[in-house]
What we know:
Layout: H1 2-14, H2 19-31, H3 37-50, H4 55-68, H5 76-79, E1 82-88, E2 94-106, E3 109-115, E4 121-122, E5 127-128, E6 133-139, E7 144-150, E8 156-164, E9 168-169, E10 173-185, E11 191-194, H6 196-201, H7 207-226, H8 236-241
Parallel strand pairs: 1-10
Antiparallel strand pairs: 1-2, 2-3, 3-6, 4-5, 6-7, 7-8, 8-10, 9-10, 10-11
Amino acid sequence: MRFVVIATYTAICHAEQSEASVSLVRETLRFAQGDNPTIVMLSAAKHLVAVNTSAAICEKFAYLMESNVHYPGDVQEQSMAIITVSKLNSLGEIKIQYQGEMIERLADGIIIQAYWEHPLKDLGYTCFEPGDRFIEYYYTHRWFNIFDISNASYERKGWYCNIAEPADICDDQIKQIDLLLDVWVDPWGTPLLLDEDEFEVDTKLNEEQRQGAQQGLHDLLQMIAAQTAPFSYKPLAEKQSV
């Protein structure tokens, strides 16, 4: 992951030919030498401000900082680990399986990243496109997961949240039973509850799963309303001007 971040920052720098480009490349190269990533990124941010870098470049850099600044400086080997994610139905059967890259292990879960490698999928309220980046949060005690989604230009699309049983997390696998309900949250923090009808008529969910799903939805909506990490919204005024 460390070198992915370096490459990303370097690409941003080359997008704008200025003194900031040279400074930011110099700072990110220090990342490869084992410096604390938080210090490196904050130092690079100071260079951006000092040379009056364009708002577009600053916004991209800010998003990358938000996504990566929490990474421990000593997780290079861990962050390169490949994780297989299996989405199961209520009977424990695999419905979707894909691979991602581990970012960080938490006391109560794990954070991974994956990329959309399928054709464009238009959902109406958003679309998933090749190259979209998914930062995925899985928890061992919460009845949901959270996908923080951005496009190939590092612009956040929103958060896709699956109501699901607490994740079963092993060294190289994540297994989670999906409970049908989903929540989409746009960049301004507006939630959209999905698949309620499917949840209501499903005959395979047991009572424990139904109760867990309702509790998970309640807890998730509280996080969304409180803007608890990883939720962080754009000002509503920006939405009104779009």
